[in-house]
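re: that chain from earlier
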Amino acid sequence: MSARIVDGRIEIRLPAGMSQEAEAVAIEELKQKITRRQRSDDGELAQRARYLNTTFLEGRAKVQSIRWVSNQRHRWGSCSPRSGEIRISDRLVGLPQYVVDAVILHELAHTIEPNHSPAFWELADRAPQSERAKGFLEAMEYVRAFPQLKG
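^ sequence. v structure.
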């Protein structure tokens, strides 16, 4: 499944053989994702990353680029430590700032410590309300795994 903007319209591609109900759900999800992504500015994300790097990592993180992506269904963010490229899931758009900041700082820390060693966690856990952010994201994953609990 994919969605993109073509000539100002949302183009959605779905696999053949989906039920009408599954198609309707997929179309709505893809429309919401692409709309969220349009509202999200990579420049603001880069500005936030610079602030977090300076404030919490003494400017040690080496970032080549940071951008929103819509293809991460199971991760909140990812980092290529060698290239310094960071990708942040657009599923974070609209969540509390402390949650987004914790994910950004987590990925920034990977440019310094590429694994999940104690040294890495010492850096990543500098995010304000980092434990609260982890709990928030864990709860979101739980609800995603068990959608019947939503309401």
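The longest helix spans residues 20-39.
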